[in-house]
Automatic annotation (TrEMBL):
It comes from the Eukaryota. The chain crosses the membrane at residues 32-52, 103-125, 132-155, 161-186, 198-221, 227-249, 379-400, 441-464. GO terms for molecular function: transmembrane transporter activity. It is a multi-pass membrane protein. InterPro entries: MFS, MFS_trans_sf. GO terms for cellular component: membrane. This is Proton-coupled folate transporter. It is found in: Membrane. Keywords: Membrane, Transmembrane, Transmembrane helix. The keyword Kinase does not apply.
Length: 488
């Protein structure tokens, strides 16, 4: 039992001192500010391109399916619905929604499947190569994807080119690598505990802000400039973001050692050894429970945006691009503001797991309302309930980070990336197939299924609370020491 009383992290003081030195260094304090324009440029370009691509897929399906040729299609106050036309014995609106869902599924899977391997691999190598490498890779892949999409829209190429562009983006990890690069950037310059929790929450709030601006601007640009101009503007922003990264973004990994770079097999072996060491024995149960919570949390939110667009383009809503952008902006604004403005006062009175539980309950309610909505007013009430649903992700990440020693933070990021990509693949295929089958009858059923996923996250968080009576989140050493003492 004597060896169990030894500190779980032998170099904690060294890690804390290094973090303090980084925070006192003016150049690293400036890193906070320099991360903002890079995030805005890359995620705004990717967000507008995402909205434009999904709506272009639907437009392409309409033009090539013969629906427009057999009806007097015009965009009226009813938006994008065709109306009383017919395509043989098939309702044209249902046919378009089903075909659009199918191609969106192909595009999502083309990104998610390769990203499940490449994102974890790239992030694990950033310990020996540096964090800037991740930002450069993401900017280049975004630039290539948007360029191919722009050309496809201008020349009206087959939708297979859109799928190819998504696959090329997936080879570099797509948005997963981008988000992970920002997380690793902040982990390098923050201390474990409250400081890191706030930094990660602010970063997630910044991502929500990017989603808000993307939603607003995508509808405006698509309506007044068209798909090609909108995507071309995003391509230019991605190029500008790449230049900002190369010229201005500092390297935050101050312990780069190229001699320590290893193969993927060795990294997997190192992670396996960690999961079988004495230290892992004491954190296995809480770690697994929080990871399961994170799995269902991501399963409930990872593919929400694209399904919502399909839902809103079809009957009974038939929204225009501007209405879709306005709704997306309202939801993202509510989630971002609640997450950033409430995190500090909430953290003073509630633990991370309690905040995550409340967030899961709000998520469940928002999905139930969205699935049963029949009018525009009811649908616009969804952002009100979904506003607090954003907060769960940074809380769970902070808990997992507190349970993981500093030397294994890269392994933790790889685990989180694996969870995110697996849930994206599952939701991309499952939700699009479900929508494809239910669109002619009850398209809202997909949101009731998502409500079930969110409720499962809440259930596992309750299980965690009942089985782990520990004050988590104060600091890394205290959290892990509490677990050790409880297990004795």
């Amino acid at each position: 039992m004597d060896d169990e009383k030894q500190p779980l992290i032998q170099n904690t003081s060294v890690r804390e001192t290094t973090a303090d030195e980084i925070l006192r260094d003016s150049s690293f304090c400036l890193s906070y500010i320099k991360l903002v324009p890079v995030t805005l440029l890359l995620h705004f370009a990717g967000g507008v391109g995402y909205y434009a691509t999904i709506q272009w897929i639907r437009e392409y399906v309409k033009e090539t399916s013969g629906c427009l040729a057999n009806t007097s299609f015009n965009k009226t106050e009813n938006g994008n619905c065709i109306g009383n036309g017919s395509l043989g014995n098939i309702d044209p609106d249902s046919h378009i929604e089903q075909e659009t869902a199918k191609w969106i599924m192909y595009t999502s899977l083309a990104t998610a499947i390769p990203a499940s391997f490449s994102s974890a691999l790239l992030c694990s190598f950033s310990d020996s190569i540096g964090r800037n490498f991740l930002f450069v890779v993401v900017a280049c892949s975004t630039l290539v994807r948007l360029t191919v999409c722009s050309l496809s829209m201008y020349y009206k190429w087959n939708l297979l080119w859109i799928v190819l562009a998504a696959g090329l983006d997936g080879l570099t990890g797509s948005v997963h690598t981008s988000v992970s690069a920002g997380i690793l950037f902040l982990v390098d310059i923050t201390r474990p505990g409250r400081h890191r929790t706030i930094a990660l929450s602010v970063f997630d709030g910044l991502l929500m802000f990017c989603s808000t601006i993307s939603g607003i601007m995508s509808g405006f640009l698509i309506k007044h400039a068209g798909f090609f101009i909108s995507t071309t503007v995003c391509t230019g922003l991605a190029l500008f973001g790449l230049l900002v990264i190369v010229w201005f973004l500092p390297e935050t990994n101050i312990n780069i050692d190229n001699s320590k770079s290893s193969s993927l097999c060795l990294k997997v072996w190192a992670a396996t050894l960690y999961c079988n060491c004495r230290e892992w024995k004491y954190i296995r149960r809480p770690f697994v429970l929080i990871t399961v919570c994170y799995f269902f949390q991501n399963l409930a939110v990872s593919h929400r945006g694209s399904i919502e667009i399909l839902y809103q383009l079809g009957k009974p809503f038939c929204w225009t691009p501007e209405m879709i952008g306005l709704f997306s902006a309202a939801r993202s604004t509510g989630q971002g503001l609640i997450g950033v403005l409430s995190i500090i006062p909430i953290k003073k009175g509630l633990s991370e797991i309690n905040v995550a539980l409340i967030s899961a309950v709000f998520n469940t309610g928002s999905y139930i309302l969205e699935g049963l909505a029949t009018t525009t007013l009811e649908l616009f009430l969804v952002p009100v309930f979904a506003a607090f649903g954003f907060v769960a992700a940074p809380m769970l990440k902070s808990l997992l980070s507190s349970l993981t020693p500093a030397s294994n933070q890269g392994t933790l990021v790889a685990i989180l990336l694996t969870v995110e990509t697996v849930t994206e693949i599952a939701s991309s295929y499952g939700l699009n197939q479900l929508y494809y089958m239910s669109a002619p009858y009850f398209p809202g059923v997909v949101f009731l299924v998502l409500a079930g996923m969110a409720s499962l996250a809440a259930i596992f968080e309750i299980v965690f609370k009942l089985t782990q009576n520990i004050n988590y989140g104060k600091d890394e050493e205290k959290t892990r020491t509490d677990i050790l003492e409880k297990k004795k």
